[in-house]
Amino acid sequence: MAQYLGSARDASRARTVRGVVGVGLLAWAMVAGAVAPPSQTATIVVRGFDKEGASHHGVYGADTAEDTVRQLAATVGLPTSDVAPYAPNQVAYANYYGDTPPPYYTAQDIADVAAVTATYGGGVPRYALITAKYAKEVMRRSGAQQITLFGVSMGGLVSRWIVEKDVEHLVSEGRVARWIIVEGVVGGNWICSEGGSSLRDAMRDLLDLDPIDLQHMSYSWIETNLHNPSTEADNPLLGLVPIHIWIPSDDNYHSYALTLASQKPNDGVQLLRDTFFHALSSQSKYLGLPPTRSCVHATHESSKDHLGLRAGIAADLFGRRRVTVTLKDVYVVNPKERSGLGNGEFVFGVSVYSPKAQERYGISAPIHEYRYDDTNFPFYRLPPQTTSTLNAVWFDDLILPGETELTLQTNVKEIDYDLLYGITEDITNAYDSLSDATLHISTVTGGSYNISTTDWRGTVVVAITDYPEFGPEPTSVRDWTLYE
């Protein structure tokens, strides 16, 4: 049965935040649970790092055409700001780099940017303020009721600053419908951080990072100015916004340079551990739940072309139903472990497919994958012929409207040699494959499913949570069909 985690808890949280940041009555009503329909929600794409960006000359905070943004918008059926600046459901993109204010800035806006630049030397706080003012301008001109913050790479950190510092009061006034982060620098960037590795220093020199952006992506700066996400975050503003995190996890980039340097799972640019919050306090969780987190088999650079990722983003933009799939327990029949090596080390990988994405967008790629070769799922050391309880989350994200089932394809390996997993039993035979299974799960109701193969068996549990309903469509709006 679907759960509705709704207004009473939201209202309680809203009262708390109201006391902290002093939002008004209208804003309080929005914070208490109102979510604008997708047709009235603009998506603000927050760009990533550019090594020459901080010294860029030109107008900041103005609509900019960008191929990746156009491709994403075209896939999910939304207009872009450079073509349809008055559409309330536009995907809007502006450069936060530059030295010239846009025409819509007032004298106060210019003074605000100058003040934050003087305080922090520019960098992330400056970019966040420019982005937030741009978001308000998009809402003003289009009539959009809310925005989706969409942070990419360093844009994940910039958007984090907007949310946690309540820049331009976007969060406290209920203007942020959701926060999507792709390949985000949520907790910093290993390459930008301090010392300890000659390879790290070499990579930093190779990338020729701008000093202010390098500093603001370092672990120490983030810990000083925000918080260390490897510890519990405690900010009531986080609890007002659904957070959806997307993690590319293929490190095959620049000949595995970051893997060799860091010895940590990564996407070629960003360590996986730095892309998400590791723990949140109760008041920092939207509806009492942690952020959704999904992975795709792509590098930091190639993720922009991953069609499964685009379908998943569409679900986060348009969907309300959250589906959580948990591998509850397993029983290994045939461990395929070498004699004398003890219990086997198993990675229970899975690929998740959306029939609705195939129907609506023609996308057959997986919308989420845990893979042993991406080191994005833990291994379990298990005895044979014994039922072992895992309670491992296999999938946890929103689904597309009208989705009635998901297809799961397992990919199970017994690992004997993998440096990132820390397993060094037999380099001559790195892994063995266990027999796989395909499972079709209902997204209409929760339930329990059994997997049975010749090598292993398992129990899968599906839980469903419905987010608050979208608000009503306006009774009178301009005709936006020109932009559709």
- How far apart, in Å, are the first and last alpha carbons? 36 Å
* Strand arrangement, major sheet: 3-2-4-5-7-9
Query: What is the strand tally?
Result: 21
Largest sheet: 6 strands, parallel
Q: CATH topology of the largest domain, which one?
A: Rossmann fold
- The number of domains: 2
Structural class: alpha/beta
Question: Under the CATH scheme, which architecture of the largest domain would be assigned?
Answer: 3-Layer(aba) Sandwich
Q: Beta-strand level of the residues, as a percent range?
A: 15-25%
Shape designation: globular
Question: What is the tally of helical segments?
Answer: 12
CATH class of the largest domain: Alpha Beta
Mean pLDDT: 89
- How much helicity do the residues have? 25-40%
Characteristic key phrases:
single chain; 484 residues; alpha/beta; Rossmann fold; Immunoglobulin-like; 2 domains; 6-stranded parallel sheet; 6-stranded antiparallel sheet; 12 helices; 21 strands
Q: Could you describe the 3D structure shown?
A:
- The protein is about 25% helix and about 25% strand.
- By secondary structure, the protein is an alpha/beta fold.
- Strand 2 (about 40-45), helix 3 and strand 3 (about 90-95) form a beta-alpha-beta unit.
- The chain has two domains: about 5-320, Rossmann fold (3-Layer(aba) Sandwich), CATH 3.40.50; about 325-465, Immunoglobulin-like (Sandwich), CATH 2.60.40.
- It has twelve helices and 21 strands.
